[in-house]
Amino acid sequence: MEMDGIYTGLQKPSEDVYSTVNQPQGRRAGAEQGVSTAGKAPPYRWAALVLAGLCTLLVAAIIFLSVYITNFRAKNLELQSQFSELERNYTNMSATVTNFQTKNLELQSQYSELQRNYTNISATVSNLTVERNQIQSWYSELEKNYSNISKKYSALDQYCPIVDTSSKERVCKSCPQNWELFNGKCYYFSTDKMNWNSSRDNCTSLGGHLVIIESDGEQKFLSDKAWNITQAANIIKEEEKVHWIGLTDAVTEGTWLWVDGTPLIGNVKAKFWGSKIYNGVDYGKEPDNYTGVDPSGEDCAQLHPKRNSNETWFDASCTKQYKRICETKTVIA
């Protein structure tokens, strides 16, 4: 209506003019030429379709980029968080390594100190070992000296007994107490009884040995002394009068040896052996190795004292229990 007012006084363009102007040139040309355009899409529709397609792709691209950027930012935040965590871990690890290095240095220092201490201790132990060995050597020497002194002191009591307890005065003798002196030797006549082996060992423990008879005078002294002892003690039983002497043929039958290994030889071999007389019957000279009592025979010699006789030796079983005569040298010549 208003448009109609505008054109008042003017000639209103015909509608054909507008239709001609608003139509594309080709269409106008076709219309002018009388060509029909029915059934064909106008060209601007194709452009609109392309533009719509591009807009769709652009929207899709924008959406994709938005999603991608959102994911990227989330991933980036996650990576930043992980990086921060790694930084913290690295810092902690660095602190741990630093502490470890510090501790390692401390341990190395302690190890060095321990090595020095060990070296010092080893040197000390070595020195102590040397000192201990030296002390042991001194102790062994002192033991020997003490043993010698004890023996000498024991010998002192034996050979130089105290005669006055108040003044401790000693009187020295050639033989120990209870030993008899004869011709430079000392003799002990026991009162207790033992077998031959025990008698031998006992004499050795007293510093001597079972008597070894080497002369007529020695034989007479021993036989007379043993006889006098039995008479003084009023001994009647014959077995109580017997004393072991240091003579045996236990190693080889018939070969008589003294306790020092010396064989019985010469005239001594025959002159001191007695004769076995029983109920007035003389059974011949000793030794006879009689096996009636001991199947192993008679392998040890005894002195059986008789009045006014030197033939006082008899063989007997070594297991018999008799007194003994021990012998040792005098201390004072």
Search tags:
333 residues; 7 helices; 12 strands; disordered N terminus; alpha+beta; Mannose-Binding Protein A, Chain A; 51% helix; eight-stranded mixed sheet; two-stranded antiparallel sheet
Short description:
By secondary structure, the protein is of the alpha+beta class.
Structural features, described:
The protein is α+β, with helices and mostly antiparallel strands and 333 residues long. It has two domains: 43-136; 180-329, Mannose-Binding Protein A, subunit A (Mannose-Binding Protein A, Chain A). It has seven helices and twelve strands. It has helices spanning 2-6, 15-22, 25-33, 43-159, 196-205, 216-232, 268-271, and strands at 162-164, 169-170, 180-182, 185-189, 209-210, 243-252, 255-258, 275-278, 281-285, 300-303, 313-316, 323-329. Strands 3, 4, 5, 6, 7, 10, 11 and 12 form an eight-stranded mixed β-sheet that branches. Strands 1-2 form a two-stranded antiparallel ribbon. It has a two-stranded antiparallel ribbon with strand order 8-9. A hairpin with a 4-residue loop joins strand 1 and strand 2 (169-170). The radius of gyration is 71 Å and the shape is rod-shaped. The termini are far apart. The model is unreliable at 1-37 (pLDDT under 50).
